[in-house]
Amino acid sequence: MEARARELGFDLVGFARAGRLDTELDEFLAWLGEGRHGTMEWLARDPERRADPTLVLPGCRSVVVVAMNYLHPEEQEQRDASPAGKVSRYARGRDYHRVFEKALRKIARFLDAEGPEGTRSKPYVDYGPAMERVWAVRAGLGFAGKHTLLIHPEHGSWFFLGVILTTAEFAPSPPLAVAGGCGDCRRCIDACPTGAITEPWRFDARRCISYLTIEHDGAIEEELAEKMDGWVFGCDACQDVCPYNRKRAEVPDADRFAPRMAPAEWSLAEMMELTEEEVARRFTGSPLKRAGAEKLKRNARIAAKSSGKK
Fold it and tell me: Which of 50, 133, 178, 303 is the residue whose CA sits 20 to 30 A from 123?
């Protein structure tokens, strides 16, 4: 199973025993009750299913967790001096769903074919009813950082996560030995421009630049807009400062997530003139297509205004 996962491009793979996540469910319900999910209403649908794999897949015995590195070096080329918006690393290349899901479905089919007769498996990326980071920790892939993302002590946090619920039974992976975890470090908390990490392991999506630039419709509060620091799609601030990311996972040999455009090419002037037709044409196969023209133009205007003040 692990060998097959690595053949398909996954960098980490682990196994956890399926079971109800009672503590995590209570924390998730409290988070929803405080409204910290903002307008992402789908997160509030059937929270019980997120905490109990057997409600999603009856007879589920194991949760297989895989991770795929998406880190690429920063592009240094500057093609012109015009102001450019910042785009999160994960969104500079192909839409990870296209790459990740395809490999994940192959793993699920492999499990069904190679497992005991009648084995059933369901793969999920970030939109499914599964708490990926929680299962990743249980499967020995790392620990939860204070920014709430998964950290592997040797490879950092530049990973996409996926889970496969399966009726096949696997021996659980041992917990990953981590000396100290985050310790007293609070660099991610201090680096967040908008204060979205309200305290260690406490996150308010409504203040997160990734949420604001991608999920949030309409105007952005002035107090938050002034702190968006030039980001037009997503944000990497908390990961950029993490000491565990100094080692950095090695850049994959394949160009599965290779950047399509250098940061300087994300011209703010150009972005402010986008039409929906141009977005559909220019960003086909790119995560940026999800935001649409209106949000990208709004984000570009905010970034241009911020740039003009410097």
Answer: 178
Q: Tell me, rounded to whole angstroms, the distance of Cα 246 from its chain centroid.
A: 19
**Judgement on whether residues 246 and 283 belong to the same structural domain of the protein:** yes
Residue 152 shares a structural domain with residue 232: no
Is residue 85 domain-resident? no
Domain containing 103: what range?
Answer: 2-73+93-166
Q: If you count them, how many residues does the chain have? A: 310
Go through 263-300 and write b for each residue having 16 or more CB atoms within 10 A of its CB, e for each that does not.
bbbbbbeebbebeeeebeeebeebbbbebbbebbbbbb
Catalytically annotated residues: 126
Nearest-angstrom CA–CA distance, 161 and 149: 10
For residue 154, with 0-12 CB atoms within 10 Å meaning exposed, 13-18 middle and 19 or more buried, which class applies?
A: exposed
Asked whether residue 256 carries a pLDDT value surpassing 80, the answer given is no
* Predicted structure pTM score: 0.90
Spatial separation of the C-alpha atoms in residues 116 and 124, rounded to whole Å: 21
pLDDT at 88: 92
How confident is the model over 49-77, as pLDDT tens digits?
A: 999 999 999 999 999 999 998 887 655 44
Instruction: Please indicate, yes or no, whether residues 191 and 301 belong to a single structural domain of this protein.
Output: yes
In a domain, 78, yes or no: no
Residues 48 and 99 in one domain: yes
